[in-house]
Design goal:
The chain is about 60% helix and about 5% strand. The protein is mainly alpha-helical. The chain folds into 2 domains: about 1-50 and about 305-385, no CATH class; about 55-300, no CATH class. Strand 2 (about 115) and strand 3 form a beta hairpin. Helix 1 (about 20-35) crosses helix 9, helix 2 crosses helix 4 and helix 7 (about 245-265) runs antiparallel to helix 8 (about 275-300). The protein is globular and about 60 Å long.
């Protein structure tokens, strides 16, 4: 990992103006990821900023697949340089990036490496209990698998593979899930598969049982979100940011959303399981959002507001990682019996606001703090390359 101004898979600091919409979508996604991940209190959150409890969809459920989608967008630029290079160069770069991002995920889970026990004493974390998978490991694996598919199968082959993955995942989830409800929390095939490879101690436990919403089995359909982003970025580069492109993206997005809503009746839209209908639904919404951004920025020419999101889009992975490490640091430091993050929330937000509003304002303020970091990096021409 190094500081650079060269384009990378996840950051395009020198992207030309004609691809501004892709930069804005990337920055918008990072900003929203920070907001939904750091409320003032997890017990007081406005409904749109919560994930659906199981089946269903909220705007928060769109954030992670959109991040994968924009990873694919960036790949539509960066993969070109590998076309005339030997496979050894391509494989070295892909596996290096994959390992670094995966290890960043493990580092984030372990940080700050110590915890407080019931007596308030600081003790070393039990590294055998670490969650192995998660957001960053999924990004790493999806990037790796999508890169291999696109490089070796080319665009048409990657599309065919995507269809096979989505239909095959549906079949495997149905036939290997526990009847009568193969898509339940306790009986789904993704959990069964992950438990074959991982100890329950190494899985996420936020659902009340060991179950990882970023598990290994459900990572395969998530690869399709990256491939979809690549195809979209490639399409925009070839067709240009014009009204015809916008219309085609918009109607493709609407068609995918309709298909997903029909599919939902048989294979429910579900983020924790990352169901095939969820992939289609999120991709359709991403295309609709991107078409709107293209219209506002390229056709209407309204661009003055875009710099705010470009700041996030120029160092997306670094800012996202820092957002997690900083809030963990604030949560570990104590002022009396309260964590520093809770103390700040109580004294700076609950003193003049309350409930869900105060919680959201804390999240927005935290996002703006990370924006200042990104702004400083941009002014100093510092761009973190993986």
């Amino acid at each position: 990992m190094q500081a650079t101004i060269t384009e990378s898979t996840f950051s395009t600091p020198q992207s030309p103006v004609r691809y501004l919409s892709l930069d804005v979508l990337r920055g918008l996604t990072v900003a929203l990821m920070i907001v939904v991940n750091t409320p003032g209190s997890w017990s007081t959150i406005f409904a749109p900023f919560k994930h659906a409890e199981w089946h269903g969809f909220t705007i928060t459920d769109l954030v992670f697949p959109t991040f994968l989608f924009v990873v694919g967008n960036a790949m539509s630029f960066s993969m070109k340089k590998f076309e005339q290079q030997p496979d050894s160069v391509f494989l070295k770069k892909v596996f290096k990036r994959t390992i670094i991002i995966f290890l960043l995920g493990l580092f984030s889970h372990l940080f700050p490496f110590v915890k407080r026990n019931d007596l308030g004493e600081i003790i070393l974390k039990d590294f055998t209990q670490i969650r192995i998978l998660g957001v960053l490991p999924r990004i790493a694996l999806c990037y790796c698998l999508a890169s291999l598919a696109i490089h070796y199968l080319k665009k048409q082959g990657a599309i065919i593979l995507s269809v096979i993955i989505l239909l095959g995942y549906w079949a495997l989830m149905y036939f290997f899930g526990t009847k009568p409800d193969p898509y339940s929390l306790q009986g789904n095939a993704a959990l069964k598969f992950d438990l074959l490879l991982f100890s329950p101690n190494n899985l996420y436990k936020g659902f009340g049982i060991p179950f990882d919403p970023e598990g290994l089995f459900s990572t395969f359909p998530a690869v399709v979100n990256v491939i979809a982003g690549y195809i979209t970025g490639n399409f925009i580069q070839k067709k240009g940011n014009n009204l015809t492109t916008i219309i085609r993206l918009l109607f493709t997005g609407l068609a995918l959303v309709c298909l997903a809503l029909i599919w939902d009746r048989y294979f429910p839209i579900n983020k924790p399981l990352w169901t095939s209908s969820y992939v289609v639904h999120s991709t359709g919404l991403d295309l609709i959002i991107l078409s709107v951004l293209l219209w506002i920025i390229e056709i209407v020419g309204f661009r003055k507001w875009t710099y705010f999101f470009q700041v996030f889009g120029k160092n997306p992975l670094f800012i996202f990682v820092m957002s997690g490490l900083l809030i963990k640091t604030l949560s570990f430091i104590r002022i009396g019996e309260k964590s520093l993050s809770n103390w700040l929330y109580t004294h700076l937000f609950l003193t003049w606001s309350e409930g869900k509003t105060a919680s959201l304002l804390f999240a927005i303020s935290y996002m703006l703090l990370l924006w200042l970091l990104g702004y400083w990096m941009d002014k100093k021409k510092i761009y973190i390359r993986v």
